[in-house]
């Protein structure tokens, strides 16, 4: 039996996610958008590319939620992207209405799907999907930490000129201004980054990663990044579908882990066929722990704004 993957939102991130899923042959795909014809058109175009990749994936497109509700995995990308000068939080209420409508429809799903949320502001939208669908927290994940980590790799590589395969790090916390680079866990070729790069320069690199999305938004003028975001979501899907037991930073509902509760926030998560099968508690330096608590507080402020709208 082939996996069924539903992708809601056939815009830049959604269509690129579909393309990468097809190239990796992760399953059949249903691409849904309120712009039905656009979703159908992109599905036909994508389908015609599969022969080049020897992929068995079938891609369909439209606006039929019955098709989404029969999927095992659902990636949610519907919503507005940022415009130059906008923060991710500026999207809060606009995208919440979209996410609420979608979550109520997914709630009718015959299966208990595994959901990866991409829509911004990421941690709040993941929380909304978790609360509205009533799915187990192992089945609702937000994609941000993987992307933020790879953005950090990119900037580290620009100064160290090393192979991408030698880098290891993790970005936790919110997908926003308070994201937390784990410098104490950042290794290049097995060596701590602090032994290779001066502290002020490390701070500059993490700042660049934190602003990585805004840099792209200001250059694109319309829309936001989508190649690396889609690749990051597909990395998560791949770990789940292929049961790889990989630890990746994902936004997940916390129930006391790291001293955090009742919000979704980026934490290290063990991904396998059970989804977010475990939140892995790793030892943080005091400065990292403080930064994570600050990040949790900033997410909580936003969550408090939408809690009254969940009913
Ligand atoms: O790291 C991350 N999590 C992110 C998040 C990285 C990059 C982009 N990120 C966010 O993803 C971004 O801020 C947006 O909130 C979403 C989607 O970004 P994308 O770049 O794909 O936006 P597009 O190209 O505008 O596509 C959005 C599509 C568009 O085709 C709309 O018609 C559709 O969403 N849309 C809907 N589809 C279904 N149902 C509803 N209600 C709906 N409303 C809009």
Rg = 19 Å
Taking the alpha carbons of the first and last residues, their distance comes to 37 Å
List unreliable stretches of 5+ residues. none
Quaternary state reads: single chain
Q: What's the number of domains?
A: 2
- Give me the CATH architecture of the largest domain, please: Alpha-Beta Complex
In what order do the strands lie side by side in the largest sheet?
Answer: 3-2-1-4-5-6
The CATH homologous superfamily of the largest domain is called Lactate dehydrogenase/glycoside hydrolase, family 4, C-terminal
Report the sheet with the most strands, covering strand number, pairing sense and barrel closure: 6 strands, parallel
Shape: globular
Query: What is the CATH topology descriptor of the largest domain?
Result: L-2-Hydroxyisocaproate Dehydrogenase, Chain A, domain 2
Percentage of residues assigned to helices: 40-55%
Structural class assignment:
alpha/beta
Count of individual beta strands: 14
> Which molecules are bound besides the chains?
1,4,5,6-tetrahydronicotinamide adenine dinucleotide
Average pLDDT works out at 96
SS element count, helices: 10
Order of helices and strands: EHEHEHEHEHEHEEEEEHHHEEEH
Strand content: 15-25%
Identify the CATH class of the largest domain: Alpha Beta
Summarize the helices and strands and which ones pair or pack.
Blueprint: E1 4-8, H1 12-23, E2 28-32, H2 36-47, E3 59-62, H3 65-68, E4 73-76, H4 92-106, E5 114-117, H5 122-133, E6 140-142, H6 145-160, E7 167-168, E8 171-172, E9 180-181, E10 187-188, E11 191-192, H7 199-210, H8 212-220, H9 227-241, E12 246-255, E13 261-272, E14 275-279, H10 286-306
Parallel strand pairs: 1-2, 1-4, 2-3, 4-5, 5-6
Antiparallel strand pairs: 7-10, 8-9, 10-11, 12-13, 13-14
Helix pairs in contact: 1-2, 1-9, 4-5, 5-10, 6-7
The protein binds 1,4,5,6-tetrahydronicotinamide adenine dinucleotide.
